[in-house]
Amino acid sequence: MKQIQMQDYGSPDVLKLVETEIPTPNAGEVLVKVKAIGVNYSDILRRKNTYFQETPLPFVLGTEAVGEIVRVGEGVTIPYAVGTTVLAILPQASGYSEYVTAIAQYCVPLPPEMNPEKATAIFVQGTTAQLMISQVANDLEGKTVLVNASAGGVGSILVQLAKLNGAKVIGASSSDAKLEISKKLGADFIVNYSKSEWSNEVKKFTEGKGVDIVFEMVGGEVYNQSLKSLSQGGQIIVFGCASGIQGTIHPEFFVDENITQSGFNLAYFINNRMELWQKALETVIGLLMQDKLKVEIAHKYALEDAAEAHEAIENRKTIGKVILTTNN
């Protein structure tokens, strides 16, 4: 089978296509013939060895893959039968492959009518957005929220979920084309954060008050301007730093404005609050099946072109979910 491996850390060029044996599932595992693989920003951090966990070498990236169960290990029973389409969640990665073994309990059987490519968005992006709203932001009814990278994988889902939860949404992105996507997804107001002092536009839209909550994952000056966009007593929820640049706001600003900063890490919920993560997953799947949630798959790459996918994400050229596909 084909697989993308990395033998070293560094640029996308370290991602190499190799031929290897199809794995055999151990007891409690299933073998999945992969159709689509989700590409996430955490994959880029892994590739550079800047993830919060050290990345061993050699390594195969990919924490989510959708495909068909073609073999089961000892002790595996219904609903994990041969022929079932599943979302395979891979905490230790290995998804950039034509076949993967996965712990059966970490596989989510999918409705036959669900598009396998769109299903790649429900694990990382979907549950990240849903958990931030339900467990960190809590009640959004009547509040105004700012979503940074609002056309991205998580951001595009946040815009929609915030609207479904009764919020007024401001979408922020780096280009007018991306902002149009946010508008189509329901954003009430859009702002281009490549412009200087864009927080003034946010304050003007909110009649000088500022927003109640910011969902932030860009870092640098975007982080600084986001804080300046908050109302007194507001909350900023940080779930990444795509630019790799730290913000420079003085801690006293948080005191003066009575601002709260919260962090979000999906791995924490999977490892420590599994029941909440499972509930979030069920919610996202339900909304997708009811057509209340749209997943934008604007960028598809063949498995062997994984390096190109990484370059596009790093250069901020992507909208929505980025996936790899196989010939299976």
TrEMBL record:
Gene3D superfamilies, A to Z: Medium-chain alcohol dehydrogenases, catalytic domain, NAD(P)-binding Rossmann-like Domain
Under InterPro entries, the record lists: ADH-like_C, ADH-like_N, ER, GroES-like_sf, NAD(P)-bd_dom_sf, Quin_OxRdtase/zeta-crystal_CS, Zn-ADH-like_protein
Q: Where is the signal peptide?
A: none
Q: Name one Pfam family in it.
A: ADH_zinc_N
Check the record and name the SUPFAM superfamilies matching this protein: GroES-like (SSF50129), NAD(P)-binding Rossmann-fold domains (SSF51735)
The chain positions of domain Enoyl reductase (ER) read 10-324
Q: Name one GO molecular function term.
A: oxidoreductase activity
Name of the protein in its database record = Zinc-binding dehydrogenase
Q: Which organism is it from?
A: Spongiivirga citrea
